[in-house]
Amino acid sequence: MKQIIARLIQQLSLQPHPEGGYFKETYRSGEEIPESCLDTKYIGKRNCSTCIYFMLTSGTFSAFHRINQDEIWHFYQGSTVKLYMISPSGELSAVLIGSDILNGEVPQFIVPAGYWFAAKVTEEDSYSLVGCTVSPGFDFRDFELAERDSLCNMFPEHDGVIRDFTR
Protein backbone atom coordinates (compact mmCIF):
# COMPACT_ATOMS: atom_id res chain seq x y z
CA MET A 1 0.00 0.00 0.00
CA LYS A 2 2.85 2.42 0.77
CA GLN A 3 4.08 2.07 -2.82
CA ILE A 4 0.63 2.87 -4.22
CA ILE A 5 0.35 5.93 -1.96
CA ALA A 6 3.83 7.11 -2.99
CA ARG A 7 2.99 6.64 -6.68
CA LEU A 8 -0.27 8.59 -6.33
CA ILE A 9 1.48 11.42 -4.49
CA GLN A 10 4.07 11.58 -7.27
CA GLN A 11 1.62 11.15 -10.17
CA LEU A 12 -0.72 13.87 -8.85
CA SER A 13 2.14 16.14 -7.63
CA LEU A 14 0.67 16.30 -4.13
CA GLN A 15 2.32 18.35 -1.38
CA PRO A 16 1.88 18.21 2.43
CA HIS A 17 -1.10 20.22 3.70
CA PRO A 18 -0.93 22.21 6.98
CA GLU A 19 -4.02 20.40 8.34
CA GLY A 20 -2.54 16.95 7.53
CA GLY A 21 -2.60 14.83 4.41
CA TYR A 22 -1.53 15.95 0.94
CA PHE A 23 -3.04 18.29 -1.64
CA LYS A 24 -2.68 19.94 -5.01
CA GLU A 25 -4.75 22.79 -6.36
CA THR A 26 -6.24 21.66 -9.67
CA TYR A 27 -8.44 24.63 -10.52
CA ARG A 28 -8.64 28.34 -9.78
CA SER A 29 -11.21 30.25 -11.80
CA GLY A 30 -9.96 33.16 -13.86
CA GLU A 31 -12.88 35.30 -12.81
CA GLU A 32 -12.65 37.17 -9.53
CA ILE A 33 -15.16 38.59 -7.07
CA PRO A 34 -14.19 42.07 -5.83
CA GLU A 35 -13.94 42.54 -2.07
CA SER A 36 -16.79 45.07 -2.22
CA CYS A 37 -19.15 42.27 -3.37
CA LEU A 38 -18.13 39.81 -0.63
CA ASP A 39 -19.28 39.41 2.96
CA THR A 40 -17.23 41.35 5.50
CA LYS A 41 -15.55 38.10 6.70
CA TYR A 42 -13.40 38.24 3.53
CA ILE A 43 -10.36 40.48 3.18
CA GLY A 44 -9.50 41.13 -0.45
CA LYS A 45 -10.90 39.77 -3.68
CA ARG A 46 -11.51 36.05 -4.30
CA ASN A 47 -11.55 33.86 -7.38
CA CYS A 48 -15.05 32.57 -8.07
CA SER A 49 -14.09 28.97 -7.31
CA THR A 50 -11.16 26.67 -6.52
CA CYS A 51 -10.68 22.91 -6.43
CA ILE A 52 -8.01 20.60 -5.00
CA TYR A 53 -7.06 16.95 -4.83
CA PHE A 54 -6.76 15.92 -1.17
CA MET A 55 -5.30 12.65 0.08
CA LEU A 56 -5.36 11.28 3.60
CA THR A 57 -3.55 8.14 4.71
CA SER A 58 -4.39 5.92 7.65
CA GLY A 59 -1.25 7.15 9.41
CA THR A 60 -2.54 10.70 9.84
CA PHE A 61 -5.68 12.83 9.92
CA SER A 62 -7.05 16.16 8.78
CA ALA A 63 -6.97 18.31 11.93
CA PHE A 64 -9.90 20.43 13.01
CA HIS A 65 -10.01 23.61 11.00
CA ARG A 66 -12.61 25.94 9.52
CA ILE A 67 -12.93 28.20 6.52
CA ASN A 68 -15.25 31.06 5.57
CA GLN A 69 -16.83 29.18 2.65
CA ASP A 70 -18.85 26.02 2.17
CA GLU A 71 -16.51 23.19 1.15
CA ILE A 72 -17.74 20.39 -1.12
CA TRP A 73 -15.97 17.02 -0.71
CA HIS A 74 -16.00 14.60 -3.68
CA PHE A 75 -14.94 10.98 -3.13
CA TYR A 76 -12.63 9.49 -5.80
CA GLN A 77 -11.00 6.29 -4.54
CA GLY A 78 -9.57 4.38 -1.61
CA SER A 79 -10.98 3.95 1.87
CA THR A 80 -14.04 5.71 3.24
CA VAL A 81 -13.44 9.06 4.96
CA LYS A 82 -15.09 9.78 8.30
CA LEU A 83 -15.59 13.53 8.55
CA TYR A 84 -16.43 15.15 11.90
CA MET A 85 -18.04 18.58 12.22
CA ILE A 86 -18.76 20.93 15.09
CA SER A 87 -21.33 23.58 14.21
CA PRO A 88 -20.97 27.16 15.49
CA SER A 89 -23.62 26.31 18.12
CA GLY A 90 -21.61 23.26 19.28
CA GLU A 91 -23.45 20.35 17.66
CA LEU A 92 -21.12 17.45 16.84
CA SER A 93 -21.93 15.31 13.80
CA ALA A 94 -20.13 12.90 11.50
CA VAL A 95 -20.59 11.64 7.96
CA LEU A 96 -19.03 8.82 5.94
CA ILE A 97 -17.80 9.94 2.53
CA GLY A 98 -17.22 7.03 0.18
CA SER A 99 -18.61 4.81 -2.53
CA ASP A 100 -20.77 2.39 -0.48
CA ILE A 101 -23.93 4.42 -1.05
CA LEU A 102 -26.32 1.58 -0.21
CA ASN A 103 -24.77 1.35 3.27
CA GLY A 104 -25.05 5.02 4.16
CA GLU A 105 -21.93 6.52 2.60
CA VAL A 106 -22.20 9.59 0.40
CA PRO A 107 -19.93 10.28 -2.59
CA GLN A 108 -20.28 14.03 -2.13
CA PHE A 109 -20.77 16.13 0.99
CA ILE A 110 -20.94 19.84 1.79
CA VAL A 111 -19.32 21.17 4.96
CA PRO A 112 -21.10 24.43 5.83
CA ALA A 113 -19.06 27.62 6.11
CA GLY A 114 -17.80 28.33 9.62
CA TYR A 115 -18.05 24.74 10.87
CA TRP A 116 -14.99 23.19 12.50
CA PHE A 117 -14.19 19.95 10.68
CA ALA A 118 -11.68 17.11 10.74
CA ALA A 119 -11.37 13.80 8.92
CA LYS A 120 -9.70 10.39 8.96
CA VAL A 121 -9.40 7.30 6.80
CA THR A 122 -11.58 4.49 8.20
CA GLU A 123 -9.40 1.51 7.19
CA GLU A 124 -5.94 0.59 8.44
CA ASP A 125 -3.05 0.67 5.97
CA SER A 126 -5.06 2.62 3.41
CA TYR A 127 -5.67 6.02 1.88
CA SER A 128 -8.53 8.18 0.68
CA LEU A 129 -8.37 10.39 -2.39
CA VAL A 130 -11.00 13.10 -2.56
CA GLY A 131 -11.52 16.45 -4.20
CA CYS A 132 -12.56 19.63 -2.40
CA THR A 133 -14.31 22.53 -4.12
CA VAL A 134 -14.72 25.97 -2.53
CA SER A 135 -16.67 29.03 -3.65
CA PRO A 136 -15.77 31.87 -3.34
CA GLY A 137 -12.33 30.51 -4.08
CA PHE A 138 -10.03 29.40 -1.29
CA ASP A 139 -7.41 31.71 0.14
CA PHE A 140 -5.31 30.83 3.20
CA ARG A 141 -6.61 34.06 4.79
CA ASP A 142 -9.92 32.15 5.12
CA PHE A 143 -8.29 29.14 6.86
CA GLU A 144 -8.07 28.70 10.63
CA LEU A 145 -6.38 25.65 12.13
CA ALA A 146 -7.85 24.85 15.54
CA GLU A 147 -5.76 25.34 18.65
CA ARG A 148 -6.52 22.35 20.90
CA ASP A 149 -7.05 24.10 24.25
CA SER A 150 -9.06 26.93 22.72
CA LEU A 151 -11.42 24.55 20.87
CA CYS A 152 -11.79 22.35 24.00
CA ASN A 153 -12.70 25.47 26.00
CA MET A 154 -15.33 26.44 23.41
CA PHE A 155 -16.81 22.93 23.25
CA PRO A 156 -15.86 21.01 26.44
CA GLU A 157 -18.53 18.39 25.73
CA HIS A 158 -16.47 17.30 22.68
CA ASP A 159 -13.10 17.23 24.44
CA GLY A 160 -12.32 13.64 23.34
CA VAL A 161 -12.83 14.08 19.60
CA ILE A 162 -11.14 17.48 19.67
CA ARG A 163 -8.04 15.98 21.34
CA ASP A 164 -8.05 13.12 18.81
CA PHE A 165 -8.09 15.54 15.85
CA THR A 166 -5.81 18.40 16.88
CA ARG A 167 -2.02 18.55 17.11
Protein described:
The chain has 167 residues and is mainly β. The protein has one domain: Jelly Rolls, CATH 2.60.120.10. The chain contains 3 helices and 13 strands. The strands form 3 sheets. A 6-stranded antiparallel sheet has the order 1-2-5-12-7-10, with no helix packed on it. Strands 9-8-11-6-13 form a 5-stranded antiparallel sheet, with no helix packed on it. A hairpin with a 5-residue loop joins strand 8 and strand 9 (92-97). The two termini are 25 Å apart. The mean pLDDT is 97.
Radius of gyration: 16 Å
The tally of helices reads: 3
Q: Please state the second-level CATH architecture.
A: Sandwich
Give the strand order of the largest sheet, numbering strands 1, 2, ... along the chain: 1-2-5-12-7-10
Output the CATH topology. Jelly Rolls
Mean pLDDT: 97
Report the sheet-strand fraction: 35-45%
Low-confidence region ranges: none
Question: How would you spell out the order of helices and strands?
Answer: HEEEEEEEEEEEEEHH
CATH class call: Mainly Beta
Work out the number of β strands.
13
Q: State the fourth-level CATH superfamily.
A: Jelly Rolls
Helix content estimate: 10-25%
**Gap from first CA to last CA:** 25 Å
Overall, the morphology is globular
Largest sheet: 6 strands, antiparallel
Strand-pairing-aware structural class: mainly beta
Q: How many domains would you count in the coordinates?
A: 1
Would you spell out the secondary-structure blueprint of this structure?
Elements (H helix, E strand, L loop, with lengths): L1 H10 L3 E2 L5 E7 L3 E2 L12 E2 L2 E8 L4 E6 L2 E9 L2 E6 L5 E6 L10 E4 L4 E6 L5 E9 L7 E3 L2 H7 L4 H6 L3
Antiparallel strand pairs: 1-2, 2-5, 3-4, 5-12, 6-11, 6-13, 7-10, 7-12, 8-9, 8-11
